């Protein structure tokens, strides 16, 4: 599909369900994204949903029950949590989203509506990687990565008070920071597997605080925004 008006948003589980489902946030997001789509009927949105609190809770439960809980089983629990979040978002946009939730970004996709909602696919990476695959497939050069952090930092600001926020960073520098190994439930601005793929494709990823919906709309409308551009 040669559609240059398709925006890909990696919608972090940390903002969909930080501890429980944030219905106030989702209502406001729904209102704003609908207004954006209504302005131009050729616009399309791909929303790739993360797992958030349910994923972490079930992964931790498995680790509490089973010593050396298999990484693949932890991944599957996280993936199922993304399906739950994505089904909610798909239902929210049911009039604009004619496809079922996408759980295999390489499979058959109609994408006849204005919204496509995707979730986790298989173990070995997060939904960030699914977002990169879908962006490549629908020829979008930029992924908007929304989480609960406003910018990428030079280090973890929770453990290093000297960590500084970045306006931009190259893929080489970013990959050096996050490493190359995927760990289920690990909290990185953009997952290592997805980063490697996005870098190879020459994509750009914008990391910003998804709770600031006005800022998200500024990114979509190509206006001045707060965040970190990777790539």
Description:
The protein is 41% helix and 16% strand. It has one domain: 3-Layer(aba) Sandwich (Carbamate kinase). The strands form 2 sheets. The protein has a 7-stranded mixed sheet, sandwiched between helices. Strands 5-6 form a two-stranded antiparallel sheet. It contains 8 helices and 9 strands. It has helices at residues 13-16, 23-39, 52-65, 71-92, 127-137, 171-178, 192-201, 213-220, and strands at residues 6-11, 44-49, 115-118, 142-147, 152-153, 165-166, 168-169, 204-209, 228-230. By secondary structure, the chain is an alpha/beta fold. Helix 2 (23-39) runs parallel beside helix 8, helix 3 (52-65) packs antiparallel against helix 4 (71-92) and helix 6 runs antiparallel to helix 7 (192-201).
Top keywords for this entry?
Carbamate kinase; 231 residues; 16% strand; alpha/beta; 7-stranded mixed beta sheet
In short:
With 231 residues, the protein is α/β, with parallel strands linked by helices. It has helices spanning 13-16, 23-39, 52-65, 71-92, 127-137, 171-178, 192-201, 213-220; strands at 6-11, 44-49, 115-118, 142-147, 152-153, 165-166, 168-169, 204-209, 228-230.
Mean pLDDT metric: 91
- Please state the overall shape, judged from the principal axes of the Cα atoms: globular
Counting DSSP H or I runs of 4 or more residues, the number of helices is 8
- Secondary structure class reads alpha/beta
Distance between the termini: 24 Å
As residue ranges, the low-confidence spans are none
CATH superfamily: Acetylglutamate kinase-like
Instruction: Please bin the fraction of helical residues.
Output: 40-55%
> Strands of the largest sheet, in order across it?
3-2-1-4-8-9-7
Q: Compute the gyration radius: what is it?
A: 17 Å
List the secondary-structure elements in sequence, H or E: EHHEHHEHEEEEHHEHE
